[in-house]
Design a protein that fits this description.
The structure holds 3 protein chains of 3 kinds. Chain A has 10 helices and no strands. By secondary structure, chain A is mainly alpha-helical. Chain A has a single domain, classed as MetI-like (MetI-like fold). In chain A, 50% of the residues are buried. By secondary structure, chain B is α/β, with parallel strands linked by helices. Chain B has a single domain, classed as P-loop containing nucleotide triphosphate hydrolases (Rossmann fold). Chain B has 13 helices and 12 strands. In chain B, α5 runs parallel beside α8. Chain C is an all-alpha fold. The longest helix of chain C has 38 residues. The chains are: A mainly alpha, B alpha/beta, C mainly alpha. Chains A and C meet through α4, α5, α8, α9 and α10 of A and α1, α7, α10, α11 and α12 of C.
Chain lengths: 294, 364, 316
């Protein structure tokens, strides 16, 4: 549907196809909707988790260590006698906030770089592309470990490190899309009418790339979650006794060998469920984004 | 020349109870050749393909014959089923395709072939495809591409196969054959690659060529060169050819007979030189008129109203072309016209006798 | 054509290595406090030790000179001293290298054999086989290695007793035994990705026009699959497999920690915790180098497989 691209002044955004968020969601099918539901639940827990926890998630009670599910304690007690369910609910916060930060940071930075490179083209683009190719070599976890060694263990340092590590990938993917968008006739039309580069990018190019950006962000949330949980598992992210799903796996790991696998498994299940949800939804959104561009 | 009488008579009654009827074949006395000696005989070919979950017809009761050494053109717009016919003949239909009717090659039933017999058939029938760049494996060398069939199916030794390939390249006008054999497809232009494809097709010494729009993907100058080579080699080797194109003029130029297809059916079979002066079907006339003649003066391009239909989109129980035909009357809407023989040609037009002589440069 | 591609790619990779080494070295200065406290991990040191550190790291020289000395030393195998272990970093690395190398190799083998294998089979045999591969890869693709680790330990070590749970082995064979569960844990999610990509690539290739040409020439099925479908699909498959295997290097640290293996990764983590910066830098450099080398091999493979390749990055 080619709307009247020629002849508009500083008017409404010219788009190829626009659907509301709800329409986009519905188009992802049953699997997409189910995933969105899981994500919604996890997000609610991330915000209200600590309030919803029936018992204190951080207070140890060693006399109850490793006791299985019993009256009021659906998932039993962990290695320090704390209620597992409460700890999971409270842990949702740090388990979800971290990835959110990583995604926000890498997407913001990556989008800016991609759009600038695609818009300016020429030597700037060449330099940026070469630069991206070079930084690509740093695996995220490694950078996070380095950051922990330098700045001390903690969620912030790890999240920042992962943001930096993911950014080249984002920039690469989005640059391709931005270049395609830039080659569209409406852009030339707007340029002829005197619209500035910044305004075209901000008001037209980026909004038209939104489906791809959202799809990419969704998929990356899953990766970030895995990487951050791994870093917390290693002891270099969220520090105990703060509740966190990755931390819970590592601190309850001895229980597996001793015959009390539930706490660690429960935390693992939470991570896997949310990651699958993000992967599935992200993939579906990606398909929609590709389809919409044809 | 007795070309038209050998080719048009077809034997075999209508096979299935679909909307179409069988070809009205009346084997005339002069057709000493029947389906036994013709190179290729297609009889009542109906093909259904799975389209969005359902089986839809793409070819309806197509019948044609090609004699030894005869070049027959197959003309139609997109969706007419011309490519599908060639694929059916070469058994290259997609998964889930349903085939009814018969295809006989040198008397043998093609559908019944398998194993070594099928491979041998594929050596005797060579297909030349439309887009050479897509149809040649980009990661293998030209030499591999050309000699593969020779080495695998015919057991020719590698060195001998390469020699033959190099010689054949010379015949299609490519110099330095031995050097070219070592190159990769992306190093050759589209025109050269198509010549390579033709050369490769001829290496297995086929008896029949199926050329599916071989020059459509090339630019005009290259088109002319490639067409010339194809025509020359075909004649010198005495090969039969089914030449598929959307260009009526092109088919008429190098083929003795031309078959016109519309909506999955054969609507006209005619000697090429008579196509313009005395077409037997309104569609053929419209096709000929739609192509502007450089010496002609006209106020606007004569296009056929509406768009070409596939077999499954066409209305059933009537003439498929009627909705777009300027000569349609009630009789055209009552039943599917039979393929009638007339003056050495065939036409699937209910009013063919009446319209005779009126169709040349017919106006709306 | 291909040589130019390779030369450019290798130059890029060397650039990556250089930048990475710069970042690794520069971390010393990003650390809060002065370089000496960073090197010592915040511990108080006697003046003699501080003097030694100053000399060794040329701390009185300009930044770039220091970087140069560090790099030069690294290239000669001298990566400094571990504060916590009081040993040469390089000897620590040498001792633990084989565990990590063996682990990554084992996991790579699993990914190639099971991942690519299942993908090919799923693509060529539609139906039940295809569906079961699709379902299992969908599930395992989201399984982080440490979660896979605890599940594997639970099922195969605790419940079934087939494999030991923790630690390295003593002989070659017991090493293999001890590394099996970790290798599977490391490989499992990458395996799923490789399997899916393989399946998609083979299916896509099977539908291509040049395969139709080969069929029309009567090429028999087995040869068709081998020389036209798989051979062409090998390009994207090799690229993705290579990149996936390269990424194993970083994740190995997590698996080594989960299984208490004395590999480079586990030690890296411990050093990071105890702020033994020299060790962190040394091991990081080794790991990044390995990563870059594997990427270089992938590029070589890509150039060998695809004659069309020109300048620029791999078509992805």
């Amino acid at each position: 549907m080619v709307s009247a691209a020629i002849g508009i002044t500083s008017g409404p955004v010219v788009t190829v196809r626009r659907r509301g968020a709800l329409g986009l969601l519905r188009s992802t099918g049953l699997a997409g909707l189910a995933s969105a539901a899981v994500i919604a639940v996890a997000s609610v827990l991330a915000i209200f988790g600590p309030l919803l926890a029936p018992y204190n998630p951080e207070l140890p009670n060693l006399s109850m260590a490793w006791v299985g599910p019993a009256g009021g304690h659906l998932l039993g007690y962990d290695f320090e006698g704390r209620d597992v369910l409460s700890r999971l609910l409270a842990g949702a916060q740090s388990s979800m906030i971290g990835p959110l930060g990583v995604v926000a940071g890498s997407m913001a930075l990556g989008t800016v770089i991609a759009v600038v490179a695609a818009w300016r083209q020429g030597p700037l683009d060449t330099v940026i592309s070469a630069g991206l190719d070079i930084i690509f070599a740093f695996p995220g976890i490694l950078l996070a470990v380095l950051a922990a060694a330098v700045f001390g263990a903690g969620l912030t340092a790890a999240a920042v490190a992962l943001s930096i590590a993911y950014m080249p990938y984002v920039a690469r993917v989005l640059r391709g899309a931005a270049m395609k968008e830039r080659g569209q006739p409406y852009v030339a039309a707007l340029e002829v009418q005197g619209a500035s580069g910044t305004s075209i990018c901000l008001r037209h190019i980026v909004p038209n790339m939104l489906p791809l950006i959202v799809a990419q962000a969704t998929i990356m949330f899953g990766w970030a979650m895995v990487d951050l949980a791994a870093i917390s598992f290693l002891g270099l992210g969220v520090q105990p006794p703060a509740p966190n799903w990755g931390v819970m796996i590592s601190e309850n790991q001895p229980g597996i060998l001793q015959g009390y696998p539930l706490p660690a498994l429960a935390a693992g299940l939470c991570i896997v469920a949310v990651v699958i949800a993000f992967n599935v939804l992200g993939e579906r959104l990606f398909e929609q984004a590709q389809a919409g561009r044809r | 020349m007795s070309t038209e009488s050998t080719g048009t008579a077809s034997t075999g009654a209508a096979s299935t109870g679909t909307a179409g009827t069988g070809t009205a074949g009346t084997g005339t006395g002069s057709t000493g050749t029947g389906s036994q000696t013709s190179l290729l005989a297609v009889d009542g070919l109906t093909v259904l393909l799975p389209v969005e979950g359902q089986q839809r017809a793409v070819l309806r009761e197509v019948s044609l014959q090609i004699g030894h050494g005869e070049a027959v053109g197959l003309v139609g717009e997109s969706g007419s089923g011309k490519s599908m016919t060639a694929r059916a003949i070469d058994r290259l239909l997609p998964r889930g395709a349903e085939v009814r009717g018969q295809i006989r090659f040198e008397g043998a039933d093609v559908a019944a072939l398998s194993g070594a017999a099928l491979r041998s058939y594929r050596n005797r029938v060579a297909m030349i495809f439309q887009d050479p760049r897509a149809h040649v494996n980009p990661v293998r060398r030209i030499g591999d591409f050309m000699t593969e069939a020779l080495r695998t199916n015919l057991g020719v030794a590698a060195a001998a196969a390469r020699q033959r390939a190099a010689d054949m390249l010379g015949q299609v006008g490519i110099e330095n054959g031995a050097q070219r054999l070592r190159q990769y497809p992306h190093e050759l232009s589209g025109g050269m690659l198509q010549r390579v494809m033709i050369a490769a097709a001829l290496l297995t010494e086929p008896a029949l060529l199926l050329a599916d729009e071989p020059t459509t993907a090339l630019d005009v100058t290259t088109q002319a060169e490639v067409m010339a080579i194809l025509d020359e080699l075909r004649r010198s080797y005495g090969l039969g050819m089914l030449f598929i194109t959307h260009d009526l003029e092109l088919a008429a130029a190098i083929c003795d007979r031309t078959i016109v297809m519309y909506a999955g059916q054969v609507v006209e079979v005619r000697r090429s030189e008579l196509l313009h002066s005395d077409p037997l079907h309104p569609y053929t006339a419209a096709l000929a008129a739609a192509r502007p003649d450089i010496g002609q003066r006209a106020s606007r391009l004569r296009a056929i109203p509406g768009r070409p239909l596939s077999a499954f989109e066409a209305p059933l129980g009537q003439c498929a072309f009627a909705p777009r035909c300027p000569h349609a009357r009630d009789v055209c809407l009552t039943a599917v016209p039979e393929l009638a023989e007339l003056d050495g040609g065939q036409s699937r037009c209910a009013r063919v006798a009446e319209l005779r002589g009126e169709l040349e440069a017919a106006d709306a | 054509m291909r040589w130019r591609f390779l030369a450019r790619r290798l130059a890029m990779l060397m650039g990556s290595l250089l930048v990475a080494s710069f970042v690794i070295f520069g971390a010393l200065y990003l650390a809060p406090g002065n370089p000496i406290s960073a090197l010592s991990g915040g511990r108080a040191l006697p003046p003699a030790s501080m003097h030694v550190l100053e000399q060794r790291y040329h701390l009185n020289q300009p930044f770039l000179t220091q970087y140069w000395y560090w790099l030069e030393n690294a290239l000669h195998g001298n990566l400094g001293i571990s504060i916590t272990l009081q040993q040469n970093v390089s000897s620590v690395i040498a001792a633990r290298m084989w565990t990590t190398g063996g682990l990554v190799l084992y996991a790579a083998l699993i990914i190639v054999v099971v991942g690519i294998g299942s993908g090919v089979v799923a693509a060529l045999r539609p139906g039940l086989v295809d569906t079961s591969v699709l379902v299992s890869t969908a599930v395992t693709a989201a399984l982080p290695s440490f979660v896979a680790a605890i599940i594997l330990i639970l099922v195969f070590s605790v419940k079934l007793g087939w494999f030991p749970a923790l630690g390295n082995g003593t002989s070659f064979w017991s090493n293999v035994q001890h590394l099996t569960l970790p290798a599977v844990a490391l490989a499992i999610s990458s395996l799923a990705i490789v399997s899916r990509v393989t399946r998609a690539a083979v299916r896509e290739e099977a539908d291509r026009e040049h395969v139709q040409t080969a069929i029309s020439r009567g090429i028999p099925a087995r040869q068709l699959i081998r020389r036209h479908i798989l051979r062409n699909a090998a390009i994207p498959i090799a690229t993705v497999s290579g990149i996936t295997i390269a990424s194993l290097i970083a994740v190995a640290a997590v698996v080594e920690t989960a299984f208490s293996l004395n590999g480079l990764g586990a030690y890296l983590v411990q050093a990071a915790e105890s702020k033994d910066l020299a060790v962190v830098q040394g091991i990081s450099l080794v790991l990044v180098t390995a990563f870059v080398v594997i990427n270089a091999v992938v590029d070589l493979l890509y150039a060998a497989l695809d004659p069309r390749v020109t300048l620029g990055s791999r078509a992805q």
